[in-house]
Structure formats: structure tokens, C-alpha cells
Amino acid sequence: MKLLYTVNSPYARKVRIVATEKHIDLVLEEVVLTAPDCPVKQYNPLGKVPVLVLDDGDSLYDSRVIVEYLDNRTPLAHLIPQEHSSKVWVRRWEALADGVCDAVVAIVMEKRKATPDEMLLNKQLDKVMRGLATLEKDLDTQKWCVNNSFSLADIAVGCLLGYINLRFSGVVDLAKDYPNLQRLNEALLKRQSFIESMPVP
Ligand SMILES: N[C@@H](CCC(=O)N[C@@H](CS)C(=O)NCC(=O)O)C(=O)O
Fold this sequence. Notes:
The protein contains nine helices and four strands, in the order βαβαββααααααα. The chain has 201 residues and is of the alpha+beta class. Glutathione binds next to α3 and α4.
């Protein structure tokens, strides 16, 4: 199986971390989305990474589908709980973390324009702030996001926090304003899967 990815995509990082935690070997193929010969569109009509290309040539996207596929490849150490209610909560944490990522990505892209749209920036910033406040409050003093055990919820939040530290540290100070999320981030950064997939400034 081959993963098409970019180094700093938080969604692709989520997939890489899940693969490492599950001890699943993936061939990693780094792509440049703007390159004319970029293979991504051939496998994903949306033209987005990550894409998992299976051995038979079929492809899976987006990151939420890929992580579910990988989690079910091996029965050991499930990152998405089998029990229905816990599974729904893990996926809600993931949806919120990914949604905040979407808003940060939209802001970063808009700011690269010659004349950024202030209304769009404010709308996306509202989503970031409301999302982070909810994650901070819901985590509270727990070590992990759901059921006191490490899961996809922690991975998704960790990828968001890594992306914020990479692209948004001038706007959001995790250590100062989000102590619960900062504590989670510090715990995650001790794991090999997080260390080897660190975004590159
Ligand atoms: N919901 C998607 C989001 C993927 C996504 O937005 N990836 C970005 C890179 S961080 C991308 O490929 N952007 C290129 C584009 O939008 O054309 C997922 O979870 O995989």
C-alpha cells in the first residue's frame, strides 16, 4: 500500500501516525500538489492528500476513511473503539479536530493572497477559537480524550495542535491559553509515531 502525502498535511500525518501505531508498513510517496505531474488527481478526484493507493490499484480517501481501513487491518490495539457509543465519541473528537484544521488551513491560504478577505478570515478564526475552547473544556483534566485510553481522538487532536504550532503560533499560544491541550500535546510528543511525523517548519 502506498500513501500519497505532503509532509505538513495534518490529515496525512493522522494517517501516518495510525499506520505506525498499528505497525502497518506503508510506502510513503511525498507529492507536490502544485506540480503538473502530481499523481493525486489520478487517484482522488478531489485532488487532496492523503490518498491511500491499495495493492490492486484502487484508492481510498479521505483521512477518515483511510484511518478506519487501517484500524481494521489488524485486530490488535484498536484506535477506534469497537463499542458503538465510544466509537461515536472518538469520531466526534476527530470531526472537531479536523474541522478546526480546515479553518486554520483556510486562513493560511487566504493570508497568502495579495488582498485577503477579512470577513472570511474572521469567520474561520471564530471556528478555530470556538473549536479550541470546546476541545480544552471537554478534555478537562483527563489524560486522554475518550475513556481514559489512547485513541484516534488523541491522534486527531495532536495533529491539529502540531499544525497550530507550525502555522498559527503567532495567533494561538497553546501553553498560555490552553493548558489542558498543551498537556495532551506534551504526552503525545513522547510517542515515536508523533516524533517521526513532526511537521517541518
Ligand atoms: N477532509 C480531508 C482534507 C484533506 C485536505 O484538505 N488536504 C489538503 C492538504 S492539508 C489538500 O490536499 N489540499 C489541496 C486542495 O485542496 O486542493 C481529509 O481528511 O483527508
